[in-house]
Write a structure and sequence with these properties.
Chain lengths: ~110, ~120
């Protein structure tokens, strides 16, 4: 099972909005409402920022939002801040009850 | 307060078996819906899901690694153990354990343990 496909890097200026895509198949992203996103700063453990496609855990900024269309999920970061500079990974629960991660996207704040 | 901590050897030789232990607190793996997964990240590469054990002792493995992996739990000790056989230098990575709840997302992670495979 191949990793979900994400762009290697996305950049934006402070205050801008950026969107990260995550493309899978009908066996994972397309067939699952359990798509989530993680933020990982260097030398830190990943942090859950979106679950079940659109939901934010308590304490996560409303600047982070998720969506899905067909086999592609997306994470949008609005009002980009320097602290958002990190790696972002999508993940999907699959039809076989396993989990598959995306290839990861490095976000740079210019 | 939920915490998870990974422990195990920092260095293993090729062909050896790796045994990692995840010790957790703040929840019980006998509670319906609770699960613990192992995930790894090789240096400079992406996260890779390895295995999961559920509260009812169901086990799930990465398709590409399932012949090498075994996951087990000791509910009384609040521990989950992962063994990986026939280690290779490409298995060098930071290994994480993480909790999964019925929302099927990893809401708490350990800090990770770096395992280097080298002779």
């Amino acid at each position: 099972q191949s990793a979900l496909t994400q762009p290697a890097s996305v950049s934006g200026s402070p205050g801008q909005s950026i969107t990260i895509s995550c493309t899978g198949t009908s066996s994972d992203v397309g067939g699952s409402n359990s798509v989530c996103w993680y933020q990982r700063h260097p030398d830190k453990a990943p942090k859950l920022i979106i679950y079940d496609v659109t939901n934010r855990p308590s304490g996560v900024s409303s600047r982070f939002s998720g969506s899905k269309s067909g086999n592609t999920a997306s994470l949008t970061i609005s009002g980009l801040q320097t602290e958002d500079e990190a790696d972002y990974y999508c993940a999907s629960y699959t039809a076989s009850r396993t989990t598959i991660f995306g290839t990861g996207t490095k976000v740079a704040v210019l | 307060q939920v915490t998870l901590r990974e422990s195990g050897p920092a260095l293993v030789k090729p062909t050896q078996t790796l045994t990692l232990t995840c010790t957790f607190s703040g929840f019980s793996l006998s509670t319906s819906g609770m699960c613990v997964s192992w995930i790894r990240q090789p240096p400079g590469k992406a996260l890779e899901w390895l295995a999961r054990i559920d509260w009812d002792d169901d086990k799930y493995y990465s398709t590409s690694l399932k012949t090498r992996l075994t996951i087990s739990k000791d509910t009384s000790k609040n521990q989950v153990v992962l063994t990986m056989t026939n280690m290779d230098p490409v298995d060098t990575a930071t290994y994480y354990c993480a909790r999964m709840t019925p929302i099927t997302a990893f809401d708490y992670w350990g800090q990770g343990t770096l395992v280097t495979v080298s002779s």
